[in-house]
Amino acid sequence: MKNKKTILSASVLFFLGAFTYGQEKDSIKTNKDKVNNVEEVVVLGSRAGARSKIDSPVPVDVFNLKEASVILPQSNIGQILNAIAPSFTSTVQTNSDGTDHLDPAQLRGLGPDQVLVLVNGKRRHTSALVNVNGTPGRGTVGTDLNAIPSFALNRIEVLRDGAAAQYGSDAIAGVMNLELKRDTGKLTGQISYGGNLTPTANDHTGNFDGQNIQLDLNYGNKIGTKGGFFNITWSSQFRNPTYRAGTEKGAIYNAYNAIEQRALNDGVNLSSLFSDIKDTPNSQQIIDYVHQYAQGVNYFSSAQLAGIQGATTIQDIKDGAGNVIQKGLQSLLSFDVTDQELAYRGQTRKDFNMQVGQSKLNNHQLFINAEVPISDDWKVYTFGGYSLRHGTSGGFYRRPRESRTFTGLYPNGYLPQIGTDIQDISLAAGIKGKWDGWHIDFSNTFGQNSFTYNIGNTGNTSLRFASPSEFDAGGLRFTQNTINLDFSKKYDVFEGLNVAFGGEHRFENFKMTAGEEASYTTYDQYGNIWDGDAAKRPTDFFGAALPGGSQVFNGFRPENAVNKNRQSVAAYADVEFNFTNWLLVDAAARYENYSDFGSTFNYKLASRIKVAPNFNVRLAGSTGFRAPSIHQIYYNVTSSLFVTSPQLPNGVLLDVGTFSNDSEAAAALGMPKLKQETSKSASVGFTYKIPSVNLTFTADGYFTRINNRILLTDQFLKAGVPDAAKQIYEKLNINAAQFFTNAIDTETKGVDVVISHNLRFSDIKLDNNFAINLNQTKQVGDIHSSGLLQSPELEKIYFSEKSRVYLEEAVPRVKASLSHTLTWKSASFYLRNTYFGKVTGADVLDANGDGITEFNEHQKIGDKIITDISVAYQFTKNIGLTLGVNNLFDIYPTKNLPASSNNDQFVYSRSTSQFGQNGRYVFSRLNFNF
Q: For residue 336, what are the contacts with CB-CB under 8 A and spacing of at least 6?
């Protein structure tokens, strides 16, 4: 802790010292220094063309990735922005199915689906994945930033203001524009190697894990002699998993498992002697084998052995009143023998750990950007890419003592693996130019993202010996095609007038593909599809029914399969008026109509007032909207989830149905049709620049009200719903159901402050940047319950306490970053401290240890400072080397309380994390260009 404070204090002093030094040296600055100090310009947030970011009427951050990629410790877009942009949050997830490979990204504390992503100014398609697991952003559909190689980018612009009136749906929190490289005449690349060097590696035994090898190549060249070019990027990443589980503390083996193993050692598989233990003709043979092999378990006490040998039945014998008058083997063999049996089998408790940490990932990406003039005024352009990722993540360990584990095949249990193939395709093409003073841009942008699930090292337990170990569980696919036609023209009126208008047509398709039959089906003891007759279910030795479907991830069923389309059309107008050289006003309006829910009209008014030559005041107000994603309308699936609730405080595995908005179950419960979220936003701020010392201040306060926010409810348990709904549950064979619905209204308020400073003197170049975001989101007003779900108790499930935490407290309300880059001749030094404010765990538990669990009692996860440092040296003009450390002091989140740790598997929270749980990351990077 002392070292951490020392680094932070030195960092602050470094910033202040540089400021003072700049003032002292002002008198000797040369004209050349002033010429080289080019002001950063932005195009996002305005259709009038580029302007300096401090003159923008709305706040825009600019991050130069082309230069920063040499020295930054992070390598993908989400993690780069999480480290350097305080208003942006994205963390690596664990044990969350497909979300393990797609980190939900949030801006200003709002949802992943409330920020619009553009590439070269064109709308980027969203992911096919619906985030239905317990993580921040639950119920949302975000954009897959990991599908775009950061090495393909020149820079990222982040507009921190509502902009739906300018850019359309999703831009409630803001807009990100990813600008692709246009470099020509050289090949650049980097080879990176790194991993996590931390005492918590390899399930807290230490050493090194999470090895990451990455190759990035970029090549560009000219096309013709009039400014045409192409630029192409290739990126390959091979990432190993990290392991952050503790030591499994739960019961693993029971006495039956021990006897079963002794029989297997002798060539007898007890599971082959029965399929339904309640009705087997050879019960005496099973009893005899149990008597025989129990004698080989040398740690049974004499009393235990005597009880086993004296048993004459498998089930308990009961009298007419249901009282046990003689215990059977099921009762006598249920006691825990974990520690003794581990010793016998030469195993340890860590052998039964889950794989908790980052997933294994192989990632290959190709991106291209090209432009060709066809006349002096017109040019055609295209850009796009292809990405293929294969990820593997672990599920919950299937222990031998559990009925979901068929010990006839897996006597030691098994750790299922969720394999995810993510394919992303995008291609944009267009023509732009000038005609009679008008700037015209006509384009078509296509994008498609798909998730295919292959479940390995698992089984369909109901198939017993006939079960395969791998399953095709089906997949998701989202396709989007957007046609844009944009016009803009500048008029010499007052100090300048820009008029812009245009239209958009968007087509969307969401497709769910069923998995293979065995991935979702429950079979009877004869190997046929189970018809619902309980007497036909196969069981384990203790009489528990064997579950069907691929363990850890049930495949999508034929009734889940959908192939739905929708279309939208939009028209917008934007007028930007410089009334004087000190007053700028920007007004925008947009009308959109969707084929599935209707139309919406939104507007925005923004202004920048130049109070003094270097001091601006800016303010904006707007309305906005977010259309319900087509995924949220039609996504439906039945799967096994680990459910905790006030009714089930200790948690249990249940078959849970996520039903589409137009389903029979939704209608039975009175769930209304999804409609658009609507928003009202306001912001006010100032920018101040001190040219003599190259120092810039910006500060912006903001407020956003969102009505009818779409959330995924918690599970409505069968026992808690009305009788009419219970009949639907029974018909669909489910124990719990959840739905997408316009559940609540929210208000978000916050402040962004950014201070930038740079110094150029002789061979020294110094850049200092400080930024802080303070934000708070709260649910306001009543919960929008309806139909059969309007009781006070059911409203707690409609918008649960867990959902409230994910919405209001799972993302840091305070986040700050202070970074310094010092360049001297051929060497560069980088230092960054990032402060992550405290967050709240979603689990309801006895956090204060007083023996009483309140309905809103949660564990607090403390604030932390993460320090990154790196050094780069350019040996020649073609070869350079970077060495660095992310999380220098190996800081981890607050440890989970035992009640949230799942028997010490989740040492740190898996649902709420400010910066992940991988610890210190060390890396080296070879940079080259030719």
A: 251, 253, 254, 401
Are 98 and 164 contacting, i.e. CB atoms less than 8 angstroms apart? no
Asked if residues 492 and 553 have their Cβ atoms less than 8 Å apart, the reply is no
SS3 call for 557 = coil
CA atoms within 13 A on the CB side of 353: 22
- How far, rounded to the nearest angstrom, does the alpha carbon of residue 392 sit from its chain's CA centroid? 15
Cα four-point dihedral sign 575, 579, 580, 582: negative
Q: What residue type is 156 in one-letter code? A: I
Reduce the DSSP state of residue 870 to 3 states and report it: strand
- Separation between Cα atoms, residue 63 and residue 45, nearest integer Å: 16
Q: Rounded CA gap, 131 and 135, in Å?
A: 8
Q: What are the distances in angstroms from CA 11 to CA 769, 823, 919?
A: 11, 16, 22
> Rounded to whole angstroms, how far apart are CA atoms 546 and 906?
27
DSSP 278: T
Burial zone of 302 (CB within 10 Å; 0-12 exposed, 13-18 middle, 19+ buried): exposed
**Per-residue pLDDT reduced to its tens digit, 158-217:** 999 999 999 999 999 999 999 999 999 999 999 999 999 999 999 999 999 999 999 999
Whether this prediction's pTM lies above 0.85 is answered by yes
Measured from the Cβ of residue 431, the count of other Cβ atoms closer than 10 Å reads 13
**How many angstroms separate the CA atoms of 576 and 555, rounded?**
52
The answer to whether 385 touches 366, Cβ cutoff 8 Å, is yes
Return the H-helix or E-strand segment holding 499: strand 497-513
Question: Under a CB-based contact definition with an 8 Å cutoff, are residues 120 and 154 in contact?
Answer: no
- Mapped onto helix, strand or coil, the DSSP state of residue 200 is coil
Contact between 583 and 611 (Cβ < 8 Å): no
Task: Give the SS3 label for residue 641.
Answer: strand
DSSP β-bridge partners for residue 61: 158
Contact 878, 915 (CB under 8 A): no
- Strands 652-659 and 736-761, bridge-based pairing: parallel
Full DSSP string of 785-845: --GGG-SHHHHHHHT-HHHHHHHHTSS-SEEEEEEEEEEETTEEEEEEEEEE--EE-SS--
What DSSP state is assigned to residue 730? H
Q: Which two tokens stand for residue 664?
A: 């029979």
Residue 249 tokens read as 């503390």
pLDDT band at 723 (very low <50, low <70, confident <90, very high): confident
Q: Which of 91, 180, 95 is nearest to 142 (CA)?
A: 91
Nearest to 142 by CA among 122, 121, 128: 128
Residue count of the chain: 930
The DSSP H or E segment spanning 115 is: strand 115-119
**Secondary structure (3-state) at 645:** coil
| 3-class DSSP state of 270 | helix
The token pair that represents 882 in the structure block: 């970077």
Q: What is the torsional sign of CA 515, 519, 522, 527?
A: positive
Question: For residue 34, is pLDDT > 50?
Answer: no
Q: What is the DSSP letter of 285?
A: H
459: confidence class by pLDDT, cuts 50, 70, 90:
very high
